[in-house]
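To assess whether the prediction recovers the assembly geometry, we first specified each molecular entity separately, as shown.
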Amino acid sequence: MSLPALELERVRKIFRRKSRSLGKRTPAQNGKKETIALESLDLTVARREIFGVLGPNGSGKSTLIRLVSTLLLPDSGTIRVFGHDIEKEEFAVKRLINRVSVDAAFFKKFSPLENLAYAARLYGMPMSEARGKMREILLRLGLKEETFTEPMERMSRGMQQKVAVARGFLTSPSLLLLDEPTTGLDPYSKRDVQAFVREVRESHDATVVLTTHDMDEAERLCDRIAILDRGKVIALDTADGLKTLVPKTNGHDPTLEDVFIALTGGRMEDKELEVAE
Amino acid sequence: MSRLVNESRGAYAFIERNVHLIKRYWGWELVWFFYSLVNSLAVTYIGAGMERISGQPMDTQYLIMYLLVGTLIWSYLSMIFYSISEMIAWERWEGTIEYTFMAPVSRPTQLVGTTLFAIGYGVFRTLLTLLIVAAFFHLDLSQANLGGAVLLLFAGSVSFVGLGIMAAVLPLLYPERGAQMTNAAAALLLLVSGVYYPIATLPGWLQWIARGSPATYVIDQMRACLLHRAPTGSLLSTVFPLIGAGVGVIVVGLFVFQHVERYAKRTGRLKRSG
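The predicted structure of the complete assembly is given in tokenized form:
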């Protein structure tokens, strides 16, 4: 039996921030504010799985992705990527992963090709191999050849996000972490990216962890879906399996959105409570 | 072997990236170069005008060279310092810090790439400044030991790399104020290192701080080398301790950086772009 792509065991992450209030502070306001981002999280993602993570804002999705990306360290618990511990074997983990985030950042004055070349060199790719691959992926994602050498700052948000996706796929990661990758894309571009995710799983034996607020996307792409709320997994199953957790409304089968709202309680206050993750 | 190849590709990524940044921000570069050139000229003109200011006969040529060596070497060393200390600040400004820190590139590799770029660009800018300044003043290099000067420049570079790494920790720890704090550190070095005056001019407690600045020794010996043709052999008693101390500070700097990076990951400080 092959190693799981990703294993989290009792992972806990708390953010502590100094309380800052304008004007006079009471003694209580001078203390540190604690936000539990992840609470004793256990999760296993199998190799070649497309694993979805849904959750309200502030539920810990981005913290989860950033922990696996080695950008955060857990307070307790262990995280392994293909058997490598992210703290003890950080370098081995970094070679296996890549990440596309919703707020992907680039050198804004560089062109897509320059940004991708920088990424390729960081990941030790020979440029002879990278040059062809960069063009191939950008074209596959629907970018026009004449935009390849334009500064990124002149591009639309959607086009920039496509370059971010290209950058994530360029290094052929074994575990790809997609943190709301299609936010801000038009429906055509969304479809392009989603088709490409499936294609990469088939052709490169890649495992994908995808966080999204787009229920259709989760249902269309993911083999299994975890719903995260207040740092805990409150449900984990296939999309069809999740739908059995909620009763029919007015004789209609529940949608994934119904399940999400029913399980997370539709609390608007959580949406305001964006954790500084 | 493959690790070495990957690391050299990683180091080259930072050189190429910095070259691109210079090209893309050429307007800013031009402004800063002009500012630094005018600064060098203004300081050197103080030497040219000293006889008139004091009303006493003076060796004006010597004063010009004294100030010019100080201003040029400081310009070079501060360039090394800023290039390295800003390696994190740049990532914060561009918002790319998470991408770079997630990549399989070690911090020493990032440092090697950044340092090679800083030395190359620093030498280019300093030589260009020297060429332009030479059009304004008669520069007498008849007493110069140029080989010794190159050796001192190398030793000075090594010593400033370590200081740069120490300062690079600040933007990692303090996303909002870190970059300004490195400016304060550079300003203190400028005050105490004898760039424009002998450190004996300073009060005792500042002279004590001056002894901890590598620039003090580099600039002092550079003057001996360029104005008094100090033989290369006599420079070695400065060069070896400078390189030794520089390597020591680099090792300590990397150790500190590694721990601060872990602290930043523990507390989620990589995300905040400030």
